[in-house]
Amino acid sequence: MVSGSRLERLLRQGEFVVCGEMSPPQGADKASILKKCEYFRGYVDAVNLTDNQTAIVRMSSVMSSVFVIEGGCEPVMQMTCRDRNRLAQQSDLLGAYAAGIRNVLCLTGDYQSFGNHPEAKGVFDLDSVQLIHAVADMNAGKFMSGEEIKPPPAFFIGGAANPFAEPLDLRIIRLGKKIAAGCHFIQTQPVFDWPRFEKWMSLVRDEGLDQQVFILVGVMPVRSVKALTYMRDEVPGMSIAEEYIKRMESAQDPKEEGVKICVELIKRLRETPGVKGVHIMPVMWESITPRLVEEAGLLPRPEPITIEEPAEPEPAETTKDA
Amino acid sequence: MSKFTEKIAAFTERHPTLYRCVVTGENVFKKAIFGCQDCGQCVLSYNAFVCCMRCPKQMRNGPCGGTRPDGHCEVYPNRHCIWWLINKRAKWMRRQAKLRKYHVPVDRRLEHTSAWMNMFAGRILPIDLSRELHEVELPKREPPPKR
User: Fold this and answer.
1) Residue-range domain boundaries for chain A
2) Is-contact B124 B3, C-beta < 8 A?
C-alpha cells in the first residue's frame, strides 16, 4: 500500500473499479461542484478533476479536489505540465497532500493553442514521465533537487496512455517508461475502436505490463453523432470506428443509443484480461454516470475491507541504527 | 568522459572568445543537419539522430497523446510528429532499444551552451553509438561558470 486511498485499496483488493470525471466550473462557484458530487457519491470509487482541460481556464484542480472531498467523494487530482514549472508542481503537490488528496494523475497537458488563451506561453518544464518520476521521488522523501521532505507525501500515482494514437510500438515503450518511473495506475483515452484497443491490450499483455500497473480504460457516453464526428475529425489522437457512427446515425434516440454503446463497452472491458477498471468520462454530462454504472451491473460499489492508515515513514532512529 | 576532455572543456570555458567560436561552430553544424534547438544537453544518439526538442511540448520521453493517424503533429498539422519520425528512423537504424532510455528533466541552465563542451566536462550523457541500451549514471557536477 502506498497511499491508502480508497482507489488504491480497492484495486489491490482485486475489485473492478469505476472512476468518474468532473470538469471544474468556469467560475468562482463551489456549489456546482458539491452538486455534481451527488452524481458520483456511491456510484464511482474516485472522481477525476481535470486541470484546465483542452487549455480552457477553469477552477484549479487542487481546489476543486478539496471541494470534492467536502462533497463526500474521493478525488483523483490531475496535474499537467503545461501551466506550472517544477517548483509550482511540487509545492501544489505538498499542499494537495496536506488537504487530503491521495491520488494524482500526471499528464503533459493539451497544447495552449487549442484553448481560450492561445496566445499564452506553455511551460512544459517537465514532461509527464518526468513528473511521475518526481512524484515518486517525493513519495520517497526527496524533492527533485535531492533535498529532504519532512514529512513526505504518499501519493497513488497515475499516468495516461493513449492506445489509439500512432505509433503503436512507441506507445508501449512509453508505457513501460512510465511504469519504471513509478506509476501505479494508468487511465486511457476513451475506447471507440475496439479492434485497435484489443491490439494495444495484447501488446501490453505480451510485455507483461498489465501485471505491473493497474489499467483503467476510458469510456465516454456521447449524446449525438456530432460528438463522435467531431472527435474523429477535430481531436487528434482519437480513433472512432465507423460502426458506432452508423449506429448513432440510425438511432431513433441518439442519447439512449450513446448510453447503450457505453454500457456495452463497459461490459466488454470487464471481460478483458488485464483491465482492472473503467474510467467514465462524460464530458459535461456528469448526470448520466449513475445510470451507466447501474446498467453495467457495477452496483453496489464495494467497500475496501482493510481500513489502514497510510504507511508511516520509518522513524529516524531506526535508520541511524542500521 | 576522461580527464583529458575535462581539461579541454575547462580551457574552452575559461576563454570566452574561443567558447563562442565553439558554440557558433556547433550551432551551424547541428542546426543545419538536425534542426538543433540549443538545449545544451544533446540526446541525439538516443533518439536515432532526430532532435526531440523540436516538439512543441519538448517531449523528451516519447510522444504525447495527440499524434494524428498519418503521423502528423497535433499542434502543427502540416509537420510530422517528432516522435513518429524518431520511431521510424530508429526502426530503420535498428536502434529502437535506445528509445527505452528515461531522460532526466532538462537542466535549463545549460540552454544555449555548447553540448559538446558539456559532454566533455561530464555534465550530460555522452554520445552513445551502440544499438543496445546501457544505463549511464550522470556524475554530479557544477554548472558552467557564468559568462
Assistant:
1) 6-321
2) no
Region of residue B29 (phi > 0: left; psi between -120 and 50: alpha; otherwise: beta): alpha
What phi and psi, each to the nearest 5 degrees, are found at residue A170? -70, -30
Q: Is the omega angle on the peptide bond into residue A152 within 30 degrees of 0, that is, cis? A: no
- CATH of the structural domain A6-321, one choice from 1.10.10.10, 3.40.50.300, 2.60.40.10, 3.20.20.220: 3.20.20.220
Interface of B with A in 26-45 (CB under 8 A): none
pLDDT digit string, tens, across residues A55-89:
999 999 999 999 999 999 999 999 999 999 999 99
Q: Give pLDDT tens digits for A118-154.
A: 999 999 999 999 999 999 999 999 999 999 999 999 9
Phi/psi region, residue A196 (left: phi>0; alpha: psi -120 to 50; beta: rest), is alpha
Measuring CA to CA, how many Å separate B110 from each of A4, A169, B83? Answer: 40, 32, 23
Using one digit for the tens of pLDDT, what is the confidence trace for A20-37?
Answer: 999 999 999 999 999 999
C-alpha cell at B99: 528509445
Report the distance separating Cα A40 and Cα A148, nearest Å.
37
Q: Which three cell numbers stand for residue B18?
A: 574561443
Does B143 contact A at CB distance below 8 Å? no
Task: Give the strand pairing for A214-219 and A185-190.
Answer: parallel
- Which three cell numbers, joined as nine digits, stand for B129? 553509438
Could you tell me if B139 lies within 8 Å of chain A, comparing CB atoms?
Answer: no
β-strands A275-280, A46-49 pairing: unpaired
For residue A48, pLDDT beyond 70: yes
| Strands A75-80 and A46-49, bridge-based pairing | parallel
Boundaries of every domain in chain B: 1-41+107-124, 45-105
CB A102 within 8 A of CB A155: yes
pLDDT in tens, A220-234: 999 999 999 999 998
pLDDT at residue A168, as a whole number: 93
Give the dihedral of Cα atoms A281, A287, A292, A294; nearest 10 deg. Answer: 140
> Whats the size of chain A, residue-wise?
322
- List the single residue in A with minimal CA-CA distance to B104: A130
Which residues of B fall within a CB distance of 8 Å from A169?
Answer: 87, 96
- Does the distance separating the beta carbons of A126 and B105 come in below 8 Å? yes
pLDDT of amino acid A322: 46
C-alpha cell at A161: 496512455
Q: Is the pLDDT of residue B141 over 70?
A: no
* Phi, psi (deg, nearest 5) at residue B53: -75, -5
* Helical axes B16-34 vs B3-14, angle rounded to 10°: 110
